[in-house]
Amino acid sequence: MKDLTTLTATELSVWVQQAKTQAEAGRVPNHIPQLAIADPGWFAVHICCASGQTIASGDTTCVFPLMSVIKPFSFLYLLELWGADQVLQWVGVEPSDAPFNSLEQLISDRGYPRNPMINSGAITLADKLPGKDASDRTHTFCHWLNQFTGCHLTLDEVMLASVRASRSSTNQAIAHHLHTIGHLENLEIALDTYEQICCLSGTVADLALLGKLFACDHEILKLQNRRIVNAVMLSCGLYEASAQFAVKIGLPMKSGIGGGLLAIVPNKAAIACYSPPLDSVGNPVGAIAFVEALSQSLQLSVFL
């Protein structure tokens, strides 16, 4: 593994341009109107190294909703609060070969969410977050993240209104099934909490600071919980494409339909990218292309 701190501005610029070109093969999602207005040409990267050095390039002032990139953090938060034995009674850690919003898989698995990185798992965990209602849960969770990482996440109310106006019928069906079999205490609060935490927003710098929770030792967080989340991100974080990119890239990663991507180089760095166009699975094309080029060139894979 080569040292990320030796990365030159020229190398970074070349990989960014290549990634922006590859992003042209993707499409900005349009099922949430507020996401559809993103410029497909936007691209940003921010790397936080364990040494304290930061490396950044592109449209780094862009603020975007984390969407599914928030899922590893709600998982970590509950692991810290309740411990692995309890949390893994609510969700599994098995990879999925079905889309991230598959109701059919949830039914075939008898209502036990395959992992916390897909919607059924994340909605289940949203039901377990502490707080009297969705807004209270979101505020408490957001404050915890900002306090521990120094990032500045905020709830994007405009994005949330757009999500609510175009609420996914599939997510509603998933939540209803989970509630019917007794896995959700309150269906509406769980779904509202899930939608709110997905609309927590920030820049790539904020996302990279969040990623340091998984990349670096933290005096408060339990090491075992960090290991669990990294392992699940590696096998499940890019949905049914996770195994493919574990081979190509070899890093724990999590994507979101908002265009965000977080990659973890354990004990070395957190890499955050933003690129709105997605592939057919729901992963940001340009962001993955960038991390792939970086990982292969610097030999960052955890399997080396």
- CATH topology (level 3) name of the largest domain: Beta-lactamase
Q: Any idea what the CATH architecture of the largest domain is?
A: 3-Layer(aba) Sandwich
Order of helices and strands: HHEEEHHHHHEHHHEHHHEEEH
Which quaternary structure do these chains form?
single chain
Shape: globular
The number of helical segments is 14
Instruction: Extract low-pLDDT stretches.
Output: none
Return the structural class: alpha+beta
Radius of gyration from CA coordinates: 18 Å
Distance between the termini: 8 Å
What is the number of domains?
2
The strand order across the widest sheet is 2-1-8-7-6
Number of strands: 8
Largest beta sheet, briefly?
A: 5 strands, antiparallel
CATH class of the largest domain: Alpha Beta
Helix content: 40-55%
User: Whole-number average pLDDT?
Assistant: 96
Strand residue percentage: 5-15%
CATH superfamily of the largest domain: DD-peptidase/beta-lactamase superfamily
